Amino acid sequence: MRIDVVSLFPEFIDQSAGYGVVGRARERGLLALQGWNPRDYAAGNYRRVDDRPFGGGPGMVMLIEPLRACLDEVRQADPAPAPVIYLTPQGRPLTQARVRELAALPRLVLLCGRYEGVDERFLAHEVDEEISIGDYVLSGGELAAAVLIDAVTRLQDGALNDAESAAQDSFEGEAGLLDCPHYTHPASHAWGEVPEVLRSGNHAAIARWRRQQSLGRTWLRRPDLLDEAALSKADRKLLEAFRAEHAAKGEGQGG
Ligand code: ADE
Questions:
Q1: What residues have CB less than 8 Å from 247, skipping those under 6 apart?
Q2: Does 138 carry a binding-site annotation?
Q3: Which residues carry out catalysis?
Q4: Ligand 1 — pocket residues by CB below 6 A?
Q5: What was the pLDDT predicted at 114?
Q6: 157-166, 208-217, 220-229: which has the highest mean pLDDT?
Q7: What percent of the chain has pLDDT over 70?
Q8: What Å distances lie between residue 186 and 122, 181, 191, 193, CA to CA?
Q9: 5, 12, 85, 88: which to mutate for ligand 1, most atoms within 8 A of CB?
Q10: What is the rounded average pLDDT of the residues 165-185?
Q11: Which pairing describes strands 107-112 and 61-62: parallel, antiparallel, or unpaired?
Q12: 137 is an annotated ligand-binding site residue
């Protein structure tokens, strides 16, 4: 996959994508990442990339022309068609379902804004999609782009060492549930015991317990996800049992 990022801080993108799964994917040639600075395409000695907003008010707005010239260059670097995605709190909230779709594309172009934003005419003409990573405001799109890059890269074939681990993540699997709890050594610790079933060697019982924990956690923490989830009859039974046990322990939902 190829990802081009238009940003006033291309070094930030390069460095943030230098570690762990994403760094390794780049080394393995699974991800080609390139940053492009609109300042390099700005005219005049000052290489101006922003100006004051019409109508007044605080902050600066990114100019059309440096962005347009930069994007032209990005397009010429590779003829493969690619959606241009603008990272903004006004965008559609990013979900794992959208991450999966984007991860299947051969190329993405990400646009990071700074200051108060980008001239609306540039967005109207050049941007295919606006994405938000959550209902909070960052100082620019770079961190949001880094989040998107990480999420799509780990889904590339060969990016993860254990092919299983992506399939079992939260939101993966057809029901879109939260992940179950995980434990490692020691089995016994001052802060508690590892659940017996995980040490039983009974793979069917372990799979059932994990599924039940996923269902139960989703019910406790993100009941909105359960409304959307396609649960089987067996799932409903497992969740029923989880809820009964939870009620017997006297714990309320949300605990
Ligand atoms: N830029 C600033 N805040 C953002 C957010 N929440 N999501 C995506 N891009 C942003």
A1: none
A2: yes
A3: 89, 116, 154, 169
A4: 87-89, 132-134, 136-138, 141, 144
A5: 83
A6: 208-217
A7: 97
A8: 56, 15, 11, 9
A9: 88
A10: 83
A11: unpaired
A12: yes
